[in-house]
Amino acid sequence: MKPRWAVPEDNQGLIDLVRDCPMRGPVEMYFDRAPDFFALGRLQGDGARVCVIDGKEPGVIAAAGAIANFPAVYVDGEVRQAAYACDLRVRPAARGGLLVKRVYDFLTAWSLEQSWDLGFTAIMAGNAAMSAVLAGKGGIVAYRRLGTMRNFTVQFLLPKRAPHGIAVRGATAADIPAMVELWNRLQSRKQFAPAWTGREPAGAVDEYLLAERAGRLVGLLRIWNQEAFKRMVVLGYSPAMRRMRSWYNPLARVLRLAIIPDVGQALPYRYATHLCAEAPADLRALFSHAYNRLRNPSTLFISTMLDVADPLIGALDGFITQHVDIDLYVMDPHGRYRERPAGDRPCYFDPAIV
Prior knowledge:
- The chain is an alpha+beta fold.
- The protein folds into two domains: 4-148 and 326-353, 3-Layer(aba) Sandwich (Aminopeptidase), CATH 3.40.630.30; 154-227 and 263-324, Gcn5-related N-acetyltransferase (GNAT) (Aminopeptidase, 3-Layer(aba) Sandwich), CATH 3.40.630.
- 22% of the residues lie in helices and 34% in strands.
- The chain has helices spanning 11-19, 38-44, 99-113, 131-134, 176-187, 239-255, 280-294, and strands spanning 4-5, 27-32, 46-54, 61-75, 78-90, 119-124, 143-155, 167-170, 208-213, 216-224, 231-237, 266-267, 269-277, 301-307, 320-331.
- The strands form two sheets. A twelve-stranded mixed sheet has the order 1-3-4-5-6-15-7-14-13-10-9-8, sandwiched between helices.
- It is globular, with a radius of gyration of 21 Å.
- The model has no long low-confidence stretch (mean pLDDT 90).
């Protein structure tokens, strides 16, 4: 089958495809994108489009991938447009062939028609199935590894004490000019961080926490709940995880923490996104406040992400975390990025748009 653009009638087929491509590990789970698969795409960038390859059975989608336009991101300190390729899924029975390459070639060819000459994508570190595509074998686009993002799962236990001298509070509309100034000043130093050109932050202002030192804004962080359109649903637990649940859940009830849910239920979590701070201590103050605020029977963990080369990553020292690494790649069909040093600036990537 040839790639084509998804239409609204593909909604259920795409939801089913994501369900049938679970993540393996101690907790086997999948992202439930019901009732609207396309809701996340509307957050991924202007004009996001989904490419699909039909399976042999009517209504079954064998593979899919998406591309979005990020009209204003920082690249080497300058604001420019970039394409973001994402949401790649291949039904397990259809893996091992050329479907991945067909999806990426289709998306790349279309982006070039739009004069999108620079893009980026995120691939789980160690993904052997993507190795041939990333090496450019037979492809029309060159991929260049830019950096490694670390996706943290921050788990709850005892309350945290914030660093001394840093006050944290909720943001209001009156804070918007200072938030935009801080964001653009600090994030311009990171590759592919969005530029706030509209003089307002991404999302609702009341989702943000602000850190202040001596009355001066030094950091911000957004707490984001996506349960309305994206949930992690448990399919199974490893024997070790089942043993852990047997003692952890009674302890969690005593400490008034969220329990690890039964198979078939969603994991209750929140994203900590739009991390921006002058120093690790500023971000640690924000995380401590968010941690204490979300440490309740309704939230099992916080998901967040930082570049392994970002000095701010030290803000999470002392928190109970697990992590997976995700590599960022530049898609550079004209080779304009080839001579630029990789890793000279930390990258920015938002796990909530995956």
